[in-house]
Amino acid sequence: MTAATIRSFNRTLLLACAPFVGLLICLYISQVELKLSDEAFPSHEIAQPNPALHSATSIDGLGQAELLAKGTGQSIKKQITLYNKTNANMKEIATIASKQAARPYQIYDRRITNKLGSPSGTIQSDKLQAQLFHLDTQNFRAYALKVKLKKDDAMKLVLGKDVQGGAETTLEAVKRNNAAIGVNAGGFADSAGKRYPLSTTIVEGEYVGGFQATFKDLFFVGMSENNKLIGGKFTSKAQLDEQSPKFGASFVPVLLQNGRKTEIPSKWQTSPKRAPRTVIANYKDDQLLFLVVDGYNEKGSSGATLAEMQILLQRYGAVNGYNLDGGGSTSLVWNGRVINNPSDGQLRKLPTNFLFFK
């Protein structure tokens, strides 16, 4: 850029600024004041809150909140009351339903119990209900034991002194195992000074001496895993295992099946004709019935015939019935006391006994 050009630019700038500079000098000399009116800055009044009004509003809000809370509380109380009432009603309905469901059993139990008469003794516990009856018969003295099992461990079969070949009286077995009731079980055979259970015997789910297929008039009778009486003739172990046997013993013969008398083999009609007897049976509701008959000898002059036992089983409403070992083996122990009159004059030592626990 040339010097002439710079001078020309400066002159132009000076001319442009001259009016403004002159105006400032004039104002300074004349002392002119520049003021802006109040309208240039309009005021805005800020409303101060009324403390009393604010307090009233707050109090009113708190009142509404309190009413709301009270209403909510009352609603909750009503819901709780309704829930409790509904719950109580449901319990009452369940109780009534339970009573109604149990009524058929109660009616049936009353009917079969009335046939036996009035019990002379009762054991009631969480494990079982047992009733002892003295029966009125024309030709012999007899006893009935009716048992309702409530738990799996209420009944079991024990070996004499808990060993194969061992023997003990029913009373000894009851005391040794702290049982409440004892009844003699299956037949036996003596060998080399020891007493062994006859044929198939099961204790705590295990076969004692192995399975023996049914021959002649022998049968197996015992309890299943679900506390039901099982019995009859079994030709194979698999056939018996299908019944889930928990314990049981063997003897002769079968007396009743599905409420009907079975044919008694001729041998057992006369050998002996009359004798002390022990019979195990069941009812439709799975209660057990034991019939025990006194006899003063085993020569056939006292006691009951097997045909008479069949009559008693039908009279008392049993479904299935099995003859257990009798004669001098017949034993009934109730609460630590021997109830029957053993034909040997004292209890016989046996290899198997049924025990019941309170």
UniProtKB/TrEMBL annotation:
Pfam families on file: NAGPA
Protein name per UniProt: Phosphodiester glycosidase family protein
Molecular function, one GO term: hydrolase activity, acting on glycosyl bonds
Transmembrane portions of the chain: 12-30
All residue ranges annotated as the Phosphodiester glycosidase domain in the record: 177-357
Keywords, comma-separated and alphabetical: Glycosidase, Hydrolase, Membrane, Transmembrane, Transmembrane helix
Entries under PANTHER family matching the protein: N-ACETYLGLUCOSAMINE-1-PHOSPHODIESTER ALPHA-N-ACETYLGLUCOSAMINIDASE (PTHR40446)
Cited InterPro entries: NAGPA
Domain of life: Bacteria
Organism encoding this protein: Cohnella terricola
